[in-house]
Structure formats: C-alpha cells, structure tokens
Amino acid sequence: MDKYVHCRAIRMAAYIRFVLPDSRQGSPRWSGSSLRQCSALIYPTLLKSGTQKRLRKLHQEILGNENSFVCEVELTPYGFTVSQMNREIKYSWQAVKEIEETSDSVDIFTRDGGGVIVRNRAFQSVAERMTFIESATSFLNQNRG
To answer: Under a CB-based contact definition with an 8 Å cutoff, are residues 140 and 96 in contact?
Structure first.
C-alpha cells in the first residue's frame, strides 16, 4: 500500500473529525475509532485515484498521446497470428482451447491463458464476422480431428 496515500487519508479523517462538532457536547472531540472509520471510508477513494494517476503517467511515458492501436488477426490453416505495436504472436490451432462468440466480440482462448478478443467493430459487416467465425472454427476442427 502507498504510505503517502494512507497518511493523507488519516489526515483528512482527523481534519473532518476535528472540524465537525460532537452532537452531545457541542465541541470537537477526538476518537481513535472515529478516525479509523473515516480513514477506512476515505482510503479506497484516494487509493483508486492515485492508482489511476500513476497508470495514466505510465501510459503517457510509454505510449505518448496515442490512444488507439491497430491490431491485426490473421487466420491460416496452421494457426492464427496477432500483430500489434511492432509485435507478432503466432498460435497454432492445437494451442486453442475454445472459440467463443459473444454479443460484442469473437474470443479465441488458448490453453495457456492467451488468445485474442476481436471486437465487432473490427468487422465491416455481419457477413464478414460470420465468415471469420466459420473459418476459425473450421481450421480448429481440422486440427483437432
């Protein structure tokens, strides 16, 4: 856990507890349990925003201002190839565990936990999507049989 975020959460909880008066006494009151409760409520939000900020910074350092990337999937009788960001990964059909159709994608999962998810927006038409699914399924069945 990030110590800085945790300390900031405790300070905020202490400030909130100090500023808000105790309804029974009409004056601010310090309580260890109330500070812990406030910290527990605030900490997840601070942790999430801190993590998102660090991930954005890492993305900026590695990829610059690019937000969309071209990914190509090529089917052959021997397997499928995924090409993206100057990298190419080849999978044989023997490594494929399953091909799954979902409402927004075609997912090809491998036995080692890899694979590819081809979103519907990658296809120009429903017919092209169906041709892709039929080709992949046919190649998979040929290599299993």
So the answer is: yes
pLDDT digits (tens, 9 = 90+) for 16-54: 666 555 555 555 555 566 667 767 777 777 777 778 888
Question: How many percent of the chain have pLDDT more than 70?
Answer: 72
- Round to whole Å and give the CA distance between 20 and 28: 6
- DSSP labels for 33-86? HHHHHHHHHHHHHHHHHHHHHHHHHHHHHHHTT-----EEEEEETTEEEEEETT
11 phi/psi in degrees, rounded to 5: -65, -40
Confidence of residue 59 (pLDDT cuts 50, 70, 90): confident
Residue 106: its H or E element: strand 105-110
Q: pTM higher than 0.70 for the full model?
A: no
Bridge partners (DSSP) listed for residue 92:
79
- What is the Cα Rg of the chain in Å? 26
Report all structural domains of the chain as residue ranges with CATH numbers, in order of start: 3-63 (no CATH), 71-144 (2.30.29.30)
- Which secondary-structure segment (H or E) carries 119? strand 115-119
